[in-house]
What we know:
225 residues; mainly alpha; Tetracycline Repressor, domain 2; Arc Repressor Mutant, subunit A; 2 domains
Amino acid sequence: MVQQDRxxxxxxxxxxxxxxxxxxxxYRAATISExxxxxxxxxxxxxxxxxxxxxxxxxxxxxxxxxLPVPERPCKVxxxxxxxxxxxxxxxxxPLVRAGVRxxxxxxxxxxxxxGPFLRWSQVGTELxxxxxxxxxxxxxxxxxxxxxxxxxxxAGIQAMSQATSNYQDLPYRAxxxxxxxxxxxxxxxxxxxxxxxxxxxxxxxxALQNTRTAEDxxxxxxxx
Length: 225
């Protein structure tokens, strides 16, 4: 168990170092030697977990999948909104998420499969919109898969713009603006009127998730006989 814990910590150290280098330099300019120096691990340790730079990059990209998901909401459009805002918050606060996004948008990353995040987010959006449609939350013309693709593509654009213009500082504002433009074209008026699309929504959802995790990590008292 101790050895397994050490291996998990080493893997996370390598991923964190790789994220820092990839975010700063991009995929093409990043080197294994620079990642090794940043991580402070041996070449053998790195290659044990990640046999190539491509594997390292894919590890950073997929790290987003290990984040806690948004809790279930009765209103599925609100759950979709919360998903967008939570990712917005993580882009501002989590270097691994920022690096994964940079890699996914890096057109110079030749040979790297960058489709994963786009396909996964599109699937998440489609599933939520399918449920929203079943519950009568959407306007009749909405095709969930099409709407999800539009939202994913538009969000990729605004996060790239936010990174270039403000280093993600204005991303919550841009995300809220995007949603205010898209949601009236897909949600029925009663649902639209009840949505929380405030810019601090992502931070609030993240805090609630952290509180839930802390509560789950607390030791439970032994049952009384």
